[in-house]
Write a structure and sequence with these properties.
- The chain is mainly α.
- Helix content is 71%, strand content 4%.
- The protein has eleven helices and two strands, in the order αααββαααααααα.
- Strands 1-2 form a two-stranded antiparallel sheet.
- A hairpin with a 3-residue loop joins strand 1 (57-60) and strand 2.
- Helix 1 packs across helix 3 and helix 10 (176-194) packs antiparallel against helix 11 (198-216).
- The radius of gyration is 18 Å and the shape is globular.
- The N and C termini lie far apart (50 Å).
């Protein structure tokens, strides 16, 4: 059985891998962690003290607990000098194939989760909200492929999305119009997954990522 500390570390690792947590991200409050982990407040506090001692988090009285660079470095992920161009090259190689496999083997529960991420992303009217659900959507599609080795490769790729250079470039190139366009492209991918059409899913994912790449790298 996992200790509270191990459970909390796993929660932070997953958030780092799926792009929802980055260096400087604020963690949930102690009260929220008590509810989420179903653990006593004293155990949550001890776990946070250990994480702070290890440099994974930093706590500011009256402000909260924040993730540090160490947390990202502890995930065996992308090299720190990975460029946005390199990230997009690998995404274009990997994710269309992932979508094709997911179209073949996804369960209804997988499709339901993917649909939830799609809907939440479409309802997000700010950069942070959309980016969070964008990362969760792509990871949910990868999980729907039901291949542990592929999932590990995807998570290494996804750690690159926590690198500062990626986040700053995404923010600079984001706009409400582009987010609406990306949502439409996400919808095309999800429709193909629901239709169990691997070729259409792969093509829709490739078209979406090519568009993202063009916008990020100044070709759009």
């Amino acid at each position: 059985m996992q200790t509270v500390e191990q459970t909390l570390r796993a929660l932070l690792t997953e958030g780092t891998q799926d792009g929802t947590l980055r260096p400087g991200s604020k963690l949930p409050t102690e009260r929220e962690l008590v509810e989420r982990l179903a653990a006593p407040r004293s155990a949550i506090r001890r776990a946070l003290e250990i994480l702070e001692r290890d440099g994974v988090v930093i706590r500011h009285v009256g402000r909260g607990t924040f993730l540090t660079e160490v947390a990202v470095q502890q995930v065996d992920g992308a090299p720190a000098d990975t460029s946005p161009a390199e990230i997009m090259q690998v995404r274009l190689l990997l994710e269309p194939q992932v979508a094709m496999l997911a179209a073949r083997v996804a369960t209804q529960a997988d499709l339901d989760r993917i649909g939830e991420c799609l809907a939440a992303g479409g309802a997000s009217d700010d950069f942070e909200g959309f980016e969070s659900w964008d990362a969760r959507l792509h990871r949910a599609i990868a999980k729907a492929a039901h291949n542990g080795l592929l999932m590990n490769m995807f998570d290494v790729l996804n750690t690159a999305r926590a690198l500062p250079v990626w986040g700053s470039l995404k923010r600079r190139t984001s706009s409400p119009e582009r987010r609406r366009c990306y949502h439409e492209e996400h919808t095309a991918v999800v429709d193909a997954l629901r239709d169990r059409d691997p070729d259409a899913a792969g093509a829709a994912m490739r078209a979406h990522l090519q568009h993202v790449s063009d916008n990020l790298l100044g070709r759009g």
